[in-house]
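In full, the data:

***
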Amino acid sequence: MIQSLTSIASGQGGYAIFSPGQSISVYAQLGALIGLIIVTKNKQLKRTAISMVPVGFLGITEPIIYGINLQKKQLFLSGILGAFIAGTFAGAVGVTGRVGTGLGIFEAIGFFQYTIYDPTGSIAQSTGQLSALGNGLLYLAACAIALGTGILFAALSYKERPSEKYAVKSINKKIFNLINKNENLDIEERKKIIKKLEKDLNVISKEDEKQIKDVEKQILDLIKIKSEISALEEKDSKVNTKLILKGKKAIKKSNEEKALEIYNIIENSPRIKKIEMLSKEVSIADKAIEIDKINKIIDAKKEKIQKTLGEVKLFDKKDLTLMMNNYEEALSSLFIAYKIKEPAKQENKYIFKNKRQVKEV
């Protein structure tokens, strides 16, 4: 806005070089959402994401950003990176904002025009601005780049959740960093302790990963069935609403035969039978999820980690308890991702800071 006013005041015609960035960023975040739709195995998440695509093309990104992209950091960062690349292109070729014609796809119309302060394009020509057609076409190219790069980066970077092995390793590194900063230990002692911990804290085996993936597939199967039920219920509700209105009209006209026919259609809907069948499958799929198997893995790994950290005698009882809550959250990545279990509260976790937090030995 300020840049446009400056351009107007200086006789430059009100051409805004920064305003295309806002529009372009919409398509980058939308692209990241589409990238998620392409790669996710979570049918419910995919269904939710698909429902947000139309509003994205209308320029409304709040549901996309706050509903999904910010929660899945890779998506939000993919959108930012895509917007940066597309914005750099738009700036390099000289795309400028000109006339406001709405949001989303309607915004493109304004880029195919000259500004209201330069309706003939004479100022644009004298100052080296793009023609109305050239500006519009290059704006569309920038939007396509934003959309495409958003899709690409999201598809390449997105993961449904952090793996247990990655989450545990992340905590291990923070603990090693604490040990490295312990001034009460000499360099050789630090190296010796860290070398031992690197081996003993590597608790997730390939067999564990396989078992976790098997249970994750069971959870995804359940989500898929529930998603199908939700879709059928939504469709059934829409169809029934229309049929009920028709039934009311038939009753008003004393057309009992027609009203009864509509009632039978509602009662004998094939969707109801399908929902009943899927509901039975939900019960079967729910019972098939081997939650106890994962809980046993979590308990066994926690016991080993606690024993290992206790043996080095560098952390007091309170800190060790808090650290174990960090590890439990890491080991419960599967359950937390699919809302079977809540993450640990911040006050119940160990906060890794830069200052030395290892007790004297």
Notes: The longest helix spans residues 206-252. The radius of gyration is 29 Å. The CA atoms of residues 314 and 359 lie 6 Å apart.
